[in-house]
Design brief:
0% strand; 128 residues; mainly alpha; 7 helices; 71% helix
Length: 128
């Protein structure tokens, strides 16, 4: 449990740092105004709904299908998706066949896709 709490805090810190540095979004303060496009906000809400229903792998697959390296709004969506998913407790994730490691792996993947691989590595440490 302590390890789970530590992993959650570390991942949230990484996502918060990336959102603040890249998008000037401070979690808990201005993420409500993060969306420039109402359609993207609806898409994000749909993904979080799937997470809440335990369809985390399906939500992540849909997220990956949406990613467009030319549009950083999707990177923002991915970061917020992983933050949201990371807030779920380990028992919920385990019950739905998902892990905290998959969250950090997903963060690494999307960071690399959008050219922030070195920043993610500096914040998350080298991939294992």
């Amino acid at each position: 449990m302590l390890t789970d709490d530590y992993a959650t805090r570390m991942t949230n810190s990484v996502v918060g740092t990336l959102l603040k540095l890249i998008f000037h979004i401070e979690l808990g303060k201005n993420e409500d105004t993060a969306w420039k496009d109402e359609e993207l906000k609806k898409t994000y809400t749909g993904l979080t709904h799937l997470v809440d229903q335990g369809e985390i792998n399906e939500a992540e697959n849909q997220l990956f299908d949406l990613l467009d390296p030319e549009n950083t709004e999707f990177f923002k969506m991915a970061l917020m998706f992983y933050y949201y998913t990371n807030e779920k407790d380990g028992d919920f994730l385990e019950k739905h066949d998902y892990t905290k490691t998959e969250i950090t792996d997903g963060l690494r993947h999307v960071s690399t896709l959008y050219g922030y691989e070195s920043m993610a590595e500096a914040l998350l440490g080298p991939a294992s």
